Amino acid sequence: MSVTIIDGKAIAARVREQVAKEVAEFTAQTGRVPGLATVLVGDDPASAVYVGGKQRACTEVGMVPFDRRLPADASFEQVADELERLNADRQVSGILLQLPVPEHLNGPALTAIISPDKDVDGLTPVNAGLLSLGRPGLRPCTPLGVMELLGEAGAKLEGAEAVVVGRSNLFGKPMAQLLLAQNATVTVCHSRTRDLREVCSRAEVLIVAVGRARLVSGDYIRPGAVVIDVGMNRLTPEQAGNKSGLVGDVDFAAASEVAAAITPVPGGVGPMTIALLLRNTLQAARYQAELYAMLAQVGEEGA
Ligand code: NAP
Q1: Helices of type H across the chain
Q2: Beta strand 161-165 with 205-208: parallel, antiparallel or unpaired?
Q3: What is the largest CA-CA distance in the chain?
Q4: Contact present, 30 and 167 (Cβ < 8 Å)
Q5: Of 117, 119, 121, 249, which is the active-site residue?
Q6: Which of 98, 177, 182, 288 is catalytic?
Q7: Residue nearest to atom 13 of ligand 1 (CA)
Q8: pLDDT tens digits for range 190-233
Q9: What is the position in ligand 1's atom list of the atom closest to the CA of 192?
Q10: Active-site residue 121, yes or no?
Q11: Ligand 1 center from residue 241 Cα (angstroms)
């Protein structure tokens, strides 16, 4: 059986195109333009590159980017004040605090300040709770991107054995919840899992997000499985065997011999995250447009 390579780059481009179309329709209908604010604390070059990418993507789909930067020694109160200002600004539909923040700051506590209806990363306690209760809310972008890839790959989730390796709040836990919501039978693995190979080899859908180059070898893969590799590990191009020097958590060549479909690294999950961030920002803008219209009505009636 020949393996299908799931082309995240092409799928992400289609999502972005669709978002751009819907942004134009939304703006025509409401007179509002969705806005995405990124908050970057410090001058970590990798984070600056990620933020720049998000800003550009925003402009490309017709949204307004708001670029907020604070110095590396900014206090908790300074960052909190910036987030509060953005919460109150009606031009801003979505707020993203670029993680990690410098060590002296408490990232989760800062994230929790973001208004849940502007939390386009889906990481506030309110949105995490709504997800686990199966209620509508904003979901984390990377797991949402993976769901999109699984849909495009034609993966059957209902009743399927799905294994997620990694249990971070950012990815593993919300990923498991999204699969559960689609009626998969979900197992979540982590660093204390006793026999990782045995658990993975049961998976019809295997999703790996650990951050260890080629942790998952060919004999972890059930024949015919759909494999999603979320890991991003930087090696030298010679070690990696590709131009970018990036490899995933799965041994791509070995897994491709066994799997029915697999994502490459780079070009698999990576491009999906920004695409879904844009979709989340539009979702947030729609919600707020309804809310502001309702508030205006109440205000008029109350007057
Ligand atoms: P993280 O917070 O460091 O979590 C890693 C998880 O892997 C933890 O749950 C850890 O278990 C588990 N783990 C560590 N060693 C293990 C082992 N030997 N066997 C089984 N599980 C093990 O990382 P993350 O933020 O979830 O990210 C994971 C990877 O995905 C990274 O490479 C990251 O760069 C990548 N990522 C990519 C994107 C994207 O846009 N493409 C987005 C998010 C993440 P414990 O909980 O027991 O410590």
Answers
A1: 8-30, 45-60, 76-88, 107-111, 125-133, 141-152, 172-181, 196-200, 237-240, 252-256, 270-302
A2: parallel
A3: 70
A4: no
A5: 121
A6: 98
A7: 191
A8: 999 999 999 999 999 999 999 999 999 999 999 999 999 999 99
A9: 47
A10: yes
A11: 22
